Amino acid sequence: MRALVWHGKEDVRFDNVPDPAIENDGDVIVKITATAICGSDLHLYDGYQPTMEKGDILGHEPMGEVVGAGRVIAIDRVPERLSLAEEGKAETINFEKEDVYERLMEGTNGRGPDRCIDAVGCEAHGTGSVDSVLDKAKAAVFLATDRANVIRQAIMCCRNKAQSRSPEFMSEPSTNSRSARP
Fold first, then answer.
1. pLDDT in tens, 9-63
2. Taking the alpha carbons of 165, 169, 76, 160 in that order, is the dihedral positive or negative?
3. Distance CA 120, CA 36 (A)
4. Which burial class, exposed, middle or buried, applies to 148 when counting CB atoms under 10 A from its CB (0-12, 13-18, 19+)?
5. pTM of the full predicted structure?
6. Strand-pair partners of 16
7. In what side-by-side order are the strands of the sheet with 170-171?
8. 17-23: long-range contacts at Cβ-Cβ below 8 A with a sequence spacing of 24 or more?
9. Which residues are CB-contacts of 137 (< 8 A; sequence separation ≥ 6)?
10. Which residue among 28, 31, 148, 152 sits deepest, i.e. has the most Cβ atoms within 10 Å of its Cβ?
11. What is the reported pLDDT for 7?
């Protein structure tokens, strides 16, 4: 397959790379149909991000089709997106109708998911909870973004030492900080 590959500071190339493979039950392969770049990509290009290593594959704000996966649970409130997820064989949770944490704990025998991936980015705000109301208040006076709700939920719902990922923020186990890299 073709991919955008980081080779060093200010050295990014479109290269042929090996096709991905499912290696663990929690792995997902997504055929990317569209992607974008934004200002945060410049931090990768200019070497500001110290964790980049030669050969890392770049990608940001992707859209695509899941072509291989183990168990996938889609969490959203938009009926059309939930329907599309169900068509793709994902289990769905409407966070306006169910408690996400309780449902995930119930579905994993109290352990929590192995991985949580925020795939909505700028639509990642919460509704109605105390922390989401506080986020909105902070955003109103320019102290913080009101989009932190989804990453907080991912961190709280994932099992201990699990991985939480977001297009704009990443939290990985401290024992193996490279484990969540693509």
1. 999 999 999 998 888 777 778 888 887 777 777 788 887 777 888 998 887 777 8
2. positive
3. 14
4. buried
5. 0.52
6. 2
7. 115-117, 163-165, 170-171
8. 17/57, 22/68, 22/69, 22/70
9. none
10. 148
11. 94
